[in-house]
Amino acid sequence: MVYFVENDIRIGATQYITYQSEDGKCFILDYWVFPQYRGNGTGHKCFECLAEYTKTDGALYYAINCDERENAIRFWKSLGFVENGVDEHGVPLYIRKP
Question: pTM to 2 decimals?
Answer without folding.
Answer: 0.91
